[in-house]
Amino acid sequence: MEKNDQDALHTPENPQSGDEREDSGCSRFEQKDDTCGEAGPPSKAAHGDFSDPVYKEIALANGAVNRMTRDELRAKCTELKLDTRGVKDVLKKRLKSYYKRQKLKQSAAAGGPGDMYYDYICVVDFEATCEENNPSDFPHEIIEFPMVLIDTHTLEIVDSFQEYVKPELNPQLSDFCIELTGIAQEMVDEADAFPRVFRRVVAWLQEKELGTKYKYALLTDGSWDMSKFLYTQCRLSHIRYPQFARKWINIRKSYANYYKVARNKTKLSCMLENLGMKYEGRPHCGLDDSRNIASIAIRMLKDGCQLRVNECLYGGEAQSVPISAPLEGAPPPQRPKSRD
């Protein structure tokens, strides 16, 4: 759910989370084990050995790219059979990443540094109950639970999951919520409550052997999906917050850092526009939002971005994960446990 299209939809987010929710100018009681984990020593994957001669070659290539005009960048992308869509800064980053990957591949063949990445990335974008003018303590309940699975080897969406959820605290959807999300009252009336839906989510993830055979991470469009919606819903449903959802990739942070743009320019529509892409589907449909977010993630991976966990839940709030933290996948998903 893109949270910054309607200022009235949500209350301001904790500034410590680092998640930006403002509109841009473009055309959205925890247990003791509530921890991000201790940060270990800087990982080799995060910092690398920059004394390797390959990095001098990469720096020279970067300098050449920086001197190119937009037309020259597009021509070079065409020559190399790369995507030519996007603003100038995106094209520069795409070319630099291409040259970096080529240099590192050559170096890796000779025993030099290489890259690491997850086998799968699972995109989550909840839709939740809302009012046109939410009070600060409004209890948002999840009413759509979508997931989209990206294979990082093939760079394709390989599967998806979607179920609607019956809200229990406020079972009657507001007219505003129905219009915003496109979710009709009968759709949630006929759905199961969150604990049952969540058990099927876990079973779906387990069928994919995520966290056992394959390394994976969750990815969201901002911090709210985990730190607000899932956290609140678990408390309302009297189940423990799942361990596998305690860390995630906030694509807004990844996008801003990789393409060097301001955080208030990372609204979903802005990210798509700057990458030369268009939204496909219905905005605020959780599954369609998730698919578009996945398309951005795939584009970033193709451009050479190493998406990695950058946020975690601590004390019921989203906190940043330092770049020095070891690169690791989410743990195997487990059936939800009661808090009682």
Distinctive features:
340 residues
Quick structural summary:
With 340 residues, the chain is an alpha+beta fold. It has helices at 44-47, 54-66, 70-79, 88-109, 175-181, 185-189, 194-207, 224-236, 251-259, 268-274, 286-302; strands spanning 120-124, 127-128, 142-151, 156-164, 216-220, 247-250, 311-314, 317-320.
If you had to describe this structure to a student in words, what would you say it looks like?
- This protein is of the alpha+beta class.
- 36% of the residues lie in helices and 13% in strands.
- Residues 4-25, 27-35 and 37-49 have low confidence and may be disordered.
What is the element layout, followed by pairings?
Elements: H1 44-47, H2 54-66, H3 70-79, H4 88-109, E1 120-124, E2 127-128, E3 142-151, E4 156-164, H5 175-181, H6 185-189, H7 194-207, E5 216-220, H8 224-236, E6 247-250, H9 251-259, H10 268-274, H11 286-302, E7 311-314, E8 317-320
Parallel strand pairs: 1-5, 5-6
Antiparallel strand pairs: 1-3, 2-3, 3-4, 6-7, 7-8
Helix pairs in contact: 2-4, 3-4
In terms of DSSP E residues, the strand content is: 5-15%
Rg over CA atoms, rounded to whole Å, is 21 Å
Total of helices? 11
* Percentage of residues assigned to helices: 25-40%
Unreliable segments (pLDDT under 50, ≥5 consecutive)? 4-25, 27-35, 37-49
- SSE run: HHHHEEEEHHHEHEHHHEE
Structural class: alpha+beta
Please describe the biggest sheet, giving its number of strands, its sense, and whether it closes into a barrel: 8 strands, mixed
